[in-house]
Design a protein that fits this description.
The protein has twelve helices and eleven strands. It is α/β, with parallel strands linked by helices. The strands form three sheets. Strands 3, 4, 5, 6, 9, 10 and 11 form a seven-stranded mixed β-sheet that branches. A two-stranded antiparallel sheet has the order 1-2. It starts with a helix and ends with a helix.
């Protein structure tokens, strides 16, 4: 089966806008032409991709499954064009790198960028950050990233993604160094329940970890009194109050290690730090070299700060 890439472009436009009219305007073709293109694609796939109503169109289950692959194909097409243009201009290909952990962005990436600048091949880097690991994993699955540094969990869909584990980072309950629980040994969940919590929203990894920590022992998880979407703000608040929060040691080490410590729980947890790539992608040599440099720099950083 040979798929017409222009039909994939139009399918994505309709899926993202939820409207034939809006998609027709965005793609510059008539509504009739766009409708015909979608019908040809549905006939080719032998599946209905959209449910149609007076309010517009909505993806069917088959359409939702196809959308992920359609985006990946289109992104690969753009990457191929970019690679050819880069070679014709005497440059190497563009590498789209995602960095989920904030501490990696601040402590490791400047070193990596300096190495790239010293390389005569001078690959162009497009660095993305500011999202949670699970959000960036979704972007990688859709073909929007070539290399991703993240902390995947068992709840993430890693279909089509290769996970190259680097090290494990200590994860636990963070408190200010003057907190009444700081320094105590064998702290129980009952001890923790006597204090209020600050955390991210329900879908964040740290919040899910907190919930599973309590529910695995048949206890009701605490309801945070403060919810924030910034780990930096969460740690800043912890440093100034008796609120408890979840963090990794490396996150604390970036600007908070003098004010915040990790409680000594009976069962400490390690969180995996990994470099992710798409399984079927063939990276250029510069991409392979970049992964090697990232692996070495990440491992050195974690070991040097005492969180192996």
């Amino acid at each position: 089966m040979v798929l017409d890439l222009s039909r994939l472009d139009r399918f994505i436009a309709v899926a993202e806008s939820g409207s034939i009219n809006k998609a027709a305007t965005a793609t510059g073709i008539s509504q009739a032409g766009l409708t015909k293109s979608i019908r040809h694609l549905e006939e080719q796939l032998e599946a209905r991709l959209f449910d149609r109503s007076a309010r517009g169109v909505a993806l069917t289950r088959e359409g939702q499954a196809f959308l992920t692959h359609a985006r990946l194909i289109i992104n690969q097409r753009e990457a191929a064009v970019s690679a050819v243009r880069a070679q014709s201009e005497g440059r190497d290909v563009t590498l789209r790198v995602g960095i989920a952990p904030r501490w990696v962005l601040r402590t490791v990436m400047p070193e990596i960028v300096a190495r790239v600048l010293d390389d005569e091949r001078r690959a162009q880097l497009v660095v993305s950050s500011g999202q949670k690991s699970w959000q960036m994993i979704e972007r990688m699955r859709e073909g929007d990233l070539d290399i991703l540094v993240a902390t995947p969990s068992e709840l993430d869909d890693l279909t089509g993604i290769t996970v190259n584990s680097v090290v494990h980072d200590s994860q636990g309950v963070a408190v200010r160094r003057e907190h009444p629980l700081a320094g105590r040994r064998n702290i129980s969940l009952k001890d923790l329940s006597e204090y209020d919590w600050i955390s991210g929203s329900a879908e964040t990894y740290f919040r899910r970890y907190l919930t599973s920590l309590y529910m695995s022992r048949g206890m009701q998880p605490p309801k945070p009194v403060v919810i924030a979407d910034s780990n930096t703000m969460i740690l800043d608040v912890i440093a100034r109050t008796d609120l408890l929060g979840i963090a990794t040691q490396q996150l604390i080490n970036v600007g908070h290690d003098e004010r915040i410590t990790m409680l000594r729980l009976a069962s400490p947890v390690k969180r995996e730090l990994a470099i992710l790539t798409r399984t079927n992608d063939v990276l250029p040599q510069t991409g392979i070299d970049l992964i090697g440099a990232l692996h070495a720099a990440l491992k050195a950083r974690v070991l040097a700060t005492g969180s192996p």
